[in-house]
Every structure is written in structure tokens, then in C-alpha cells.
Amino acid sequence: MGMPLSLFWSRSFLLNRFFLWLMFICNFLGTVYGYIWYGNQIEDTVSNHPLWQVVFVPDSPTASLFFTITLLYWLFPPQGNSRFVNGARMIIEGLAVVTSIKYGIWAVSMIVAGSMQGDPLQWEHWMLMASHTAMAVEVLLYARFMKAGVWAAVIGTLWLLLNDTVDYTYDVFPWLSDRLMDDLTEVKWFTYGLTIFSFIVGALALKARKQT
After folding, report:
1. Nearest 10 degrees: Cα torsion 63, 132, 128, 50
2. Cα gap 159→157, rounded to integer Å
3. Pick from 59, 90, 86, 13: nearest CA to 160
4. Three-state helix/strand/coil letters over 67-97
5. Could you count the other beta carbons within 10 Å of the beta carbon of residue 76?
6. How many Å apart are CA 111 and CA 122, to the nearest integer?
7. Tens digit of pLDDT for each residue in 57-115?
8. Closest among 28, 41, 34, 35 to 67, alpha carbons compared
């Protein structure tokens, strides 16, 4: 008799230490790669924009960083009952959920939109679509085990709205395909709309959580 598929999204499987370490390593390496990927845009921002805007440039790797830190909370559970530690954990988890959903979907959407306007899909595009889809899927699988509640998703959403506003006010949004630059207004409003969508989905996922 085969192994039931439900095992792969069960608590015992997802919170198994071996699997958590595997997830941590994959997300850590993906985060590092993501910051390297944004390297040229970070350098351009440092050279041509106020320094405070740099933090708003690497969207996806920062989302991945939040989830990577979240994995550490399961690998090394905080001792004691410190309000500061618990509050920081909940905020990071809330940020991980809404940002991973948003930028996972956003990156795939931009690649697909570019290809529909004539951009050839290279192997890097397929890799990015797979990794960003995984960002959104994994955080939804783990949301029910997080301690964060809806208020943490609200904080994460406020961060996203600030990020969106800085991106499209000061032109530090992720570099787009040349074919999408004439659709920048549509991209902007899609991005804002995706922030609200990510809040709704993330809040619902966290509301169904089970305390670890």
C-alpha cells in the first residue's frame, strides 16, 4: 500500500527536523542568490538614489529572508516567554507570509507578461518561475503552524504598501523587461492589488493556524 499524499503536508512531515533543515538550507541559498541577482540594481540605486531607498530594492530575497528566519524559530525554539521575542517572531512570520505570497506571484506574473509580449523564455526564467512559485506555496503550507495572527499580516501588508509606494514613486521597482516598460502604470496597480490579495490570503491562512 502506497504512502498517502496527505503525509507530505502533515505536521509530522513538515516539522520534522531533517526536513526543516533541508528547507532552511534551500531558502538560505535562495536568499543569498536573490541578493546577488539584485546586485546591479542595488549598485545603481546606491549611485543614483538616496541610500535609504536601497532597502526597498531586493523584494523577493527579503521575503525569502523572512521565511528563512521563521524556519529558525522551529529549529531553535526560543526559551522563556519574553513578550519582545514572541512579538518579534510574530511580526517576522506575518512579514514572511504576505511578502512570500506577493513576490512569489508577482515575479511569475511579470515573466509570463513579458513572454506574452515577445520575450523569449530562457532557462533562468523557468528557474525563477519554479523558485518563486515555491515561495508562495511553502509559506502557505507552513502558515498554519505559525504563532502570528491577522494583526501580524496587517503589519506585513503595511510594509508592502510602503514598499510599493517607494518603488513606483522613486523608480526603484524591480527592473522589468523592456517590453513591459510601456505598461508601467498597469504593473504599478497590479502590484498594489496583489498586496491586498496577499493580505487576504495570508490572513486566512494564519487564521487557520495551529500553535506549535
Report:
1. -30
2. 5
3. 59
4. HHHHHHHHHCCCCCCCHHHHHHHHHHHHHHH
5. 8
6. 10
7. 999 999 999 999 999 999 999 887 788 989 999 999 999 999 999 999 999 999 999 99
8. 28
